[in-house]
Design a protein that fits this description.
7 helices; 6% strand; two-stranded antiparallel sheet; single chain; mainly alpha; two-stranded antiparallel ribbon; 2 domains
Length: 189
């Protein structure tokens, strides 16, 4: 009787993890240092050699040009959104409050770092850190708040003072931290 993969019951096992003993098909097997592992069992000292991994620092550095870091980390669509957004801001720089381009550029660097980190977790067979998901959600809310401010300023309330932008952003951040159920949730063993 042929053994089946621990993760794919319809596939035949081709190897066994040296750490946990799970039977692995060719897609689940990671061969590092001459030994077979399943992704979660790859020793920490070998994780940086996993195929498909991307450097979060390189992703952030490449994002000096908005979107390139996200593309490098494997998120082409996300990278194109950042690149096109930067182009739209550059074309309308006179209509955008002064701190917004700087904020979006820094956000772009931070996002590229997180996208690469999440990719590395998935490549290693691990769940991405829930903290990075919360951080992405916050920065998404923050960007929506700035977009709402800019839209209100350019359409409904043209006299809206840009100096209100940062206190409003800090208020949004504080509200996010207070009401984020996932960060306040403690699991009981």
């Amino acid at each position: 009787m042929e053994l089946s993969c621990a993760h794919h019951e319809t596939r035949a096992a081709r190897a066994r993890c040296v750490d946990c003993g799970a039977n692995l098909c060719g897609a689940c097997r990671v061969k590092l240092g001459g030994q077979n592992y399943c992704r979660p069992c790859v020793p920490e000292r070998l994780r940086k050699r996993l195929p498909g991994r991307r450097s979060p620092v390189a992703a952030a550095v490449l994002s000096a040009v908005p979107g390139l870091g996200q593309m490098y980390a494997g998120s082409l669509g996300r990278g194109l959104v950042f690149l096109l957004s930067a182009g739209a801001l550059a074309a309308n720089v006179q209509a955008v409050p002064e701190p917004v381009p700087l904020f979006l550029w820094v956000f772009n660097l931070f996002d590229a770092f997180l996208v690469a980190s999440d990719r590395n977790a998935r490549v290693a067979g691990l769940e991405p850190d829930p903290g990075t998901t919360r951080q992405k959600r916050f920065w998404g809310l923050f960007a929506l708040g700035i977009a709402g401010f800019c839209t209100a300023r350019s359409t409904v309330v043209p006299d809206l003072d840009p100096d209100l932008l940062w206190p409003a952003a800090l208020s949004l951040y504080g509200a996010f931290l207070l009401f984020d159920r996932r960060s306040n949730h403690v699991q009981h063993a």
